[in-house]
Amino acid sequence: MWSCWEHARYLDYESTYAHVSVIYNTMTQEIYQADVSLKTDAWTQDERPYRWTNPLYKDAYLAEAKQRNIDPDDAWDGVQWIELEVAEDFLEKAKAIFNGQNFDKRIQVPVDLEDDVLFQIAMEAHKRDITLNKMVEVLLQEAINHHKGLF
């Protein structure tokens, strides 16, 4: 019933541990949004629900939520969604939560780097004897810490 999503249908899956839902286009099979949450009997405050929204439709969804006076960050009763930016991150978390398995709670962030910057980061990772991914994680954490210190 949201006009930002054409030909939309909603699928809901349930396991012993979790609920998963997917909103998709019936004509193209394109996924608009997907979410996963633990069942309430297994839910604790540190186990917030995860959601992925297709970036092609995110702005339209947010605009319609504003028009409907709905907080798009609110999953239910003041519980906030953890927004995931990478579809594969959602799939990994949803599969683990759905099956009652442990999972990596860190959020994957897409990073697009110029070749020369990537080379510099790779060289620094080599100097520190760590992986490229770990080096990017270190740099992002330093940037976050720096940003927090400014405000």
What does this structure look like?
- This protein has 151 residues and is an alpha+beta fold.
- The protein has four helices and seven strands.
- The strands form two sheets. It has a five-stranded mixed sheet, covered by helices on one side. Strands 5-6 form a two-stranded antiparallel sheet.
- Helix 3 crosses helix 4 (132-150).
- It is globular, with a radius of gyration of 18 Å.
- The mean pLDDT is 90.
What is the compact description of this entry?
The chain has 151 residues and is α+β, with helices and mostly antiparallel strands.
Number of domains: 2
Instruction: Report the biggest beta sheet as strand number plus sense, adding barrel if it closes.
Output: 5 strands, mixed
Q: What is the number of beta strands?
A: 7
Terminal CA distance reads: 41 Å
Quick one: overall form? Answer: globular
By oligomeric state, this entry counts as: single chain
Class derived from helix and strand content: alpha+beta
Helix content: 25-40%
Gyration radius from CA atoms, angstroms: 18 Å
Strand content: 15-25%
Which strand order does the major sheet show? Answer: 1-2-3-4-7
Q: Which regions contain 5 or more consecutive residues with pLDDT less than 50?
A: none
Number of helices: 4
- What is the succession of H and E elements? EEEEHEEEHHH
Please tell me the overall pLDDT.
Answer: 90
